[in-house]
Amino acid sequence: MTELARVPASDPVERIVDALTDDGAVIVEDLLDADLLARFNAEVDPLVAGAQPERDTKFVNEAVAWFFGAHTRHVTGVAAKSPIFVHEILPHPVYLGVCDAVLGPSCARYQLNIAHVLDRGPGSEQQYLHRDEAVWVHLPKPHPEVQLASVIALVDFTADNGATCVAPGSHRWPEERVATDADLVPAEMTAGSAVVYLGSAIHAGGANVTAAERRRGMHVSYCVGWLRTEENQYLSASPDVVRSMPRQSQELLGYAAHDALTAGGGYLGVVDLRDPVDLLADGHL
Question: Which residues, in sequence order, are bridge partners of residue 73?
């Protein structure tokens, strides 16, 4: 393939799911309409400006610092910092429809795994090729799809400014197969569009070889509700922050119990044997 399939966000979600099934990745055009894109960028502008690459705090390990690179302005924990994200992007109907189809068969509910803005400057190198689901390396294989990931273009993405590169079909490859440059397709797209991909698809952030152009995008991913998330939402978005959010957003942030009793399983994440979102609603949490 020389280009990923493109599906307008206004099309039936089944078209997106079909492309994911076939290729492991798809470009969803205009996921954020012009108004939402402008409002969200305006909201995160001061956050990005304050997130200088020279961090005062260390990453969890040096490998993560290298992975994101020295030219990246990084805004983490977006759910706690952006009301627009919480109300309009986290519960976006396209995301929920695709998660229902991809993750729903393997869990009682799914949850946000991570949401962070990455503003990659000139000189950023291509990330190493990886599958996002590798964060759960101890999960036995084979296993069903456990993650739906995406990168939303908050500015136009080009091959030169570091568009995400994807190896189409790699979600079906044997584990030992290594992707080559010839396998990779840059997810070039206009601002507001998103490359949506399975956690099992091989990809990488591209190199920014421009002289002065920054590539701002937001990585948003969801995972099945019985896995530990990459970003600790309970600390990133504490109960004091979450309490005023819509219930649906609270549930997507993992504050709801994962109740699989109707499927013959058990429950996870309860407090005093109750669903935490009910405790939030009652004022007991």
Answer: 119
